[in-house]
Write a structure and sequence with these properties.
Largest sheet: 2 strands, antiparallel
CATH architecture of one domain: Alpha Horseshoe
Strand order of the largest sheet: 1-2
Length: 651
């Protein structure tokens, strides 16, 4: 059950703040944590309950005694029961005590108790009679939950079949839905409920009707004949909807079932048609031959043809029998919408549709941008592309149509090594006067992987200044794939050209730890007169993550840099390197006059000591003191750092 009543965090200044001395939340004292749960400050409840749960079996006796205290508030009992949920396996000896709370006045207490008993499974059988009483609870959510808890606990849930059938006519839709879904767990044993489930086609709640379809569909082949009979002419339309949804779920799939679904997937009633098409997708390959046959039969109905083609595409590789028929629809004489649907569906079939690649390549010559775009996407999914197709995609990269230029760059990137035959051509584009073309070309090269390193290095030797920057940008797009070029990129750092040094530094930072051989050169760059070079060097050192005395000294110098942006970058990098020996220096920076320095120092401390817990008392004390900082950003950074250290956040 969802816990209620002010259980959310305090919102202050647009940020989530937990300014409550969180160091104690890691305490292993159950009594202290229970007192925090009793507190009127709702912000303590969730974290205290989590910590109480983490203590495990040792805390259970005290929790049970507290629950039995009639003076405790419902709010306290709710959170104590939350703490018991992860420890359900230890609760067998307390099962009768827990069952008493099924009669509690508070609905969330009853709900949490049911959830715990459900997690106990067979160990909760001694109180099954009490759980069955919850089937008549005054709250519909409790009644619904009780059905499923009974199913988890009971030795033979089918003995409750008659009772569930009666509940299908309950006045509450939530209860009716729950009963139908509970019947679905019985599968073929629920066949006696089929007549009553069929009657739910009249139910005003779509959720109840869907649950009925799911229950019928779970009954297996024994229900097929009767369900198919519900689709006969003259039967109510709403009844046919339930029958179609049920047929999509029945396993093993029967021939009669497939025939009915295909018939309605290509029939005149659009609503029933869409429902049957969805269920054909669920059934998969067995429906594909019937749908392919329908393609030939409905050539004169473009709207229906498009629906069938799209359905086959959604079926993916399971509909590969349709590939020859879909390929025929790519011809220029076919209406545009049908051609679009066909190429998109072929793309969705992935590698299995590779034989259609030559026909799809022809679409790249078309004047309609949408068709060209769809063709590129399909070729990417095929993971195979003729050279003519590659050439055409590069041509679009050079072109002046923004949509197709973007699509071409994305396609080349996603094709990866398959686009390697065009590497020299792409490198040539890195010298273009058009900055967007240079950007897209470097982006495309980034997908080629390690194979792009050697060609890029060779081209750099005789490249123009503009092209050299483009090549370095391409190394950056390769990310860790540029690791074989660390030595080359390190040499570029000695070039004296600030722009080249910045691009090389960015490429090294994206390589990460494998760029460690560049560290000595990067440390020297911290004395460069260009602040942007110094910033890039710090960023790269942070991503590489190596800790040693030389780096510590260099960062100490960087923290005294006259340019604030350099100091900020140094603090950010220190958080990534996570060297505990920086703690003392960072603690002093929490009192710096610049609020940006204070919050970045707090952030770095949180990252350095992430997950270390209460042992960092001095750090936690200094961070808690930031609650009084005049800057809301510093307050937030301090709070987040505390939660990182204590393991209370995954950020």
């Amino acid at each position: 059950m969802n816990v209620k009543k002010n259980s959310g965090p305090l919102l202050m200044g647009g940020m989530v703040l937990w300014t409550l001395g969180l160091g104690n939340l890691m305490a292993q004292d159950p009594e202290l944590l229970i007192n925090r749960i009793r507190s009127k400050d709702a912000r303590l409840h969730s974290a205290s309950s989590e910590q109480l749960a983490a203590i495990g079996e040792r805390a259970i006796p005290l929790i049970i005694r507290t629950l039995e205290n009639k003076k405790e508030t419902p709010e306290t009992r709710i959170w104590l029961l939350e703490a018991l949920k992860p420890n359900a396996k230890y609760l067998a000896k307390y099962v009768r005590t827990l069952a008493k709370f099924l009669r509690d006045k508070d609905v969330d207490v009853r709900g949490n108790t049911l959830e715990i008993l459900g997690r106990m499974e067979a160990k909760a059988r001694p109180v099954l009679d009490k759980i069955l009483e919850s089937w008549n609870d005054s709250d519909n959510r409790i009644r619904r939950l009780a059905f499923f808890v009974t199913q988890q606990i009971a030795e033979d849930f089918s003995e409750y079949l008659p009772r569930l059938i009666n509940i299908l006519s309950d006045s509450d839709p939530i209860v009716r839905e729950g009963a139908a879904l509970a019947l679905a767990t019985l599968k073929e044993k629920a066949l006696p409920a089929l007549p009553q489930l069929i009657l739910l086609y009249k139910d005003p709640s779509p959720r109840v009707r869907n649950a009925a379809a799911k229950a019928i569909g779970s009954m297996g082949k024994g229900a097929v004949s009767e369900v198919v009979g519900l689709l006969e002419e003259g039967k109510p339309r709403d009844l046919k909807f339930i029958a179609i949804k049920a047929l999509g779920r029945i396993r093993p799939v029967q021939r009669k079932q497939v025939k009915a679904l295909v018939e309605f997937a290509t029939g005149p009633d659009k609503g029933l048609r869409v429902a049957a098409q969805e269920e054909c997708v669920r059934v998969g390959s067995l429906c594909a031959p019937g749908l392919v046959k329908a393609l030939e039969e409905h050539q004169d109905n473009p709207a229906l043809l498009k629906e069938i083609i799209s359905t086959l595409g959604t079926m993916g590789e399971t509909a590969k029998v349709a590939i020859p028929s879909l390929t025929k629809f790519l011809r220029p004489s076919t209406p545009l919408e049908i051609r679009l649907a066909a190429v998109r569906s072929l793309g969705l079939m992935g590698k299995s549709a590779r034989r259609a690649a030559p026909s799809v390549v022809k679409l790249l010559e078309d004047k309609e941008p949408k068709l060209v775009q769809a063709g590129m996407r399909a070729l990417v999914r095929f993971r195979a592309i003729p050279d003519k197709g590659l050439s055409k995609i590069v041509e679009y990269l050079r072109g002046d149509q923004p949509l197709l230029r973007t699509e071409a760059a994305m396609a080349l990137k996603q094709l990866g090594p398959l686009a390697l035959p065009k590497i020299e051509e792409l490198i040539g584009l890195l010298g273009s006067e058009d900055p967007n073309l240079r950007l897209w070309a470097s982006f495309a090269i980034g997908g080629l992987g390690t194979s792009a390193n050697a060609p890029l290095r060779r081209a750099f030797k005789n490249a123009t200044k503009r092209q050299k920057l483009g090549i370095l940008q391409a190394f950056g797009e390769l990310g860790i794939g540029a690791a074989p070029s660390v030595e080359f990129l390190t040499r570029v750092l000695h070039s004296g050209d600030s722009a080249q040094m910045i691009h090389a530094g960015r490429a090294l930072s994206r390589i990460g730890r494998l760029a460690a051989p560049a560290i000595p050169t990067l440390l020297k760059l911290l004395r460069n007169k260009d602040k942007d070079v110094r910033i890039v060097a710090l960023t790269a050192l942070g991503r590489i993550g190596t800790r040693n005395e030389s780096i510590r000294k260099a960062f100490e110098t960087a923290l005294a840099d006259p340019q604030p942006e350099v100091v900020y970058s140094a603090l950010e990098a220190m958080g990534k390197i996570r060297d505990p020996k920086w703690a003392r220096r960072l603690l002093t920076l929490l009192r710096h006059k610049d609020e940006h320095v204070r919050w970045r120092a707090a952030e770095a401390l949180g990252l350095i000591f992430k997950g270390t817990g209460r042992k960092e008392k001095e750090v936690l004390k200094a961070l808690r003191a930031l609650e009084k900082d005049p800057s809301k950003y510093v307050v937030f950074a301090g709070d987040l750092a505390i939660r990182r250290i204590l393991g209370l956040t995954r950020k």
